[in-house]
Glucokinase
Amino acid sequence: MNKELLIGVDLGGTNVRSGLIKGSEILQIDSRRISSKGTEAEVLAELIASITQVMDPSVKAIGIGVPGILDTKEGLVYDVQNIPSWKKVPLKHILEEHFHIPVYLNNDANCFAMAEWHFGKGQGTANLSGLILGTGVAAGLICNGQLYEGRNCGAGEFGMIPYLQHNYEFYCSGNFFSHFYQITGEEAYRSAVQHEPIALQAFQEYGIHLSWLIKSILYAVDPEVIVLGGSVSKAFSFFKASLWEHLADFPYKPVIENIRIEASEKDNIAILGAAALCLAKS
């Protein structure tokens, strides 16, 4: 494992978290709220302040995960979720001019896949899908030992594939519980822990929908492991059985026999994943 000092940054719509990383160890974290409704320059200043807080003279590179659309080659960030002022930001250029070290950008789903591949459940594999199940649904793909982004950094957007009356995101994100049970995913989880029948039924149904999404992933990329992340993955024990039950009819039996499906157990996965972008370039 690379032992150089790196910085990983998780830029969200309301918060930024920056971590100083050596190997798989996070030495220091800065976490702060950002002015989501602020100007482009105001949010940039807050991002730079967070990175500066964990900066060390020996840091070799900075990796940043962004919840939005990117041009990773040019280092441009477009339309960041919940930051209206960020329409087209040359973030790589701005930060490299400021810190004078290489900066690498990617979306949060790709960062999650990179984190699990380098530090988590995907170590030792060549093909991994990191599937984020939160307020949305998206995946990062490691194919033959390389992050696969697609031409426009849009690979892995399985949540947007049409399914039933909507798309997979409608049925497989945390919003499933509000759509069909008028409760939040967190409320469903707390109720399931208390063995309340309605919550257990909700997770059973959720597992059925997720099985169809996972079948699509298996048809498309046939990974060795699918790692579940995001808020819903914390409840994996409540939908694991129905998920596997409804994967049993997959027509290619060796695929089902060999696939591993696991929930992420890594702390600060977003920060680690952003730093892992630097490892891919080293």
User: Anything to note?
Assistant: The longest helix spans residues 197-221.
